[in-house]
Amino acid sequence: MSNLKSKKISISNFCKLIPKIELHAHLNGSLNEDILKQLGCDETSISEYQKLTEILNKTSRNLDECFHLFPIAHNATKTKEKLYMATKSVIKDFKKDNTIYLELRTTPRSEEDMSKEEYIETVVKCINDCKSKYKILVKLILSINRRQDDNNAEESLKIIIKMKEKYPDIIKGIDLSGDPKVGTFNENLFEKARIAGLKTSIHCAEVKNNEEVKKILDFGPDRLGHAVCLHPAYEGSQENWDLYLQKKIPIECCLTSNVICGTVERYEEHHIQELINLRLPFSICTDDKGVFRTNSSKEYEHVMKHFKISPTDLYQFNYNSVEQSFASDEEKKRLIHVLNKVLYLFLGDIFSMVQIKDYCDEPVDEQLYRDLNLAPMWREFY
Ligand code: IMP
Ligand code: ZN
User: Fold this and answer.
1) CATH number, domain at 377?
2) Shortest-distance Cα residue to atom 4 of ligand 1
3) Which atom number of ligand 1 is nearest to the Cα of residue 77?
4) Phi, psi (deg, nearest 5) at residue 270
5) What is the DSSP string of 239-301?
6) Number of domains in the chain
7) Ligand 1 test: best mutation among 23, 24, 26, most atoms within 8 Å of CB?
8) Is the pTM of this model over 0.85?
9) Per-residue pLDDT tens for 89-108?
10) For 243-276, what is each residue's pLDDT tens digit?
11) ∠79-83-88 over CA atoms, to 5°?
């Protein structure tokens, strides 16, 4: 530990080192280049999958371009074997990035070789297999796509509820996602999910749609995804904002996703600023780390850098994320325990060392990782 204490650490390394909590990650949007190759994707489709990150300077980006990319991953995960490989790779990536708790979400699909039920079984099996191997706590949220018609969505819900009863420790919630310009929020469907004991996380206000936002807020999900156009300064209505302030629903913020898709112009203009200023609940998330070539550390770093957040405040956001998670009370206690241990046993000095003015983009310091051996804590955790 001695050389860790004497080292000056950059914000970037600080964000890599601390244990992180991820609450909003789509499986098929989170695939890295290597796994896409292993799944049989050629170079052209891999660069297509990641092309949004190469056109960052384009002035008129839009969400439509983003939704054309997911079929590349969907084509690569059509069999149980490939879906299993993809899930394992995503869990491994998050683990490598020092994520200690991951809520992965995915849309059950039926394919020639697999039913929706088998899709869920495959992902659950992989999560269970990875549990002891990678020492990361993973929960599953199952998504309904906005393009699904009522019958299809009802069919998905029935299967999701059945699978939740079979795997109550893994399957925790349900999500509404997909192209925000298509379809609508069906409160009856999500009410049934809630009655069945599923937590709800709804993609909300990715584009201006005050009528739908009102419906979602009236329903009162456990968490909201994005919520870009909710605050009146970001095209939301005052009525909805007032309603939001009464409910204070935690918001999953995905900065890079919003900037790359063009729903937010620049990092420093992200609505997370309002949430920070008003001490409203939020978490820092990746959304689609493969498509947007990001990871949790980079997202934490963007928040620190663009909003002048101190290490202690960032760490506090992490505690808040645990509170907002769909983990059980016992699991939350254990996660907090891990955060506390890292804070007091390993990082005590780092808090006094990291300062915004010291920001520099140093390469990763491998020795620093070796010094910060989290293994003993994980032995206690499981
Ligand atoms: P999957 O559910 O594992 O197949 O992950 C990819 C899917 O997540 C996409 O097809 C979309 O339905 C959904 N998704 C990913 N990113 C976003 C987003 O930013 N907004 C809404 N839906 C999204
Ligand atoms: Zn999302």
Assistant:
1) 3.20.20.140
2) 28
3) 4
4) -65, 145
5) HHHHHHHHH---EEE-HHHHHHHTSSSSGGG-THHHHHHTT--EEE--B-TTTTT--HHHHHH
6) 1
7) 26
8) yes
9) 999 999 999 999 999 999 99
10) 999 999 999 999 999 999 999 999 999 999 999 9
11) 150
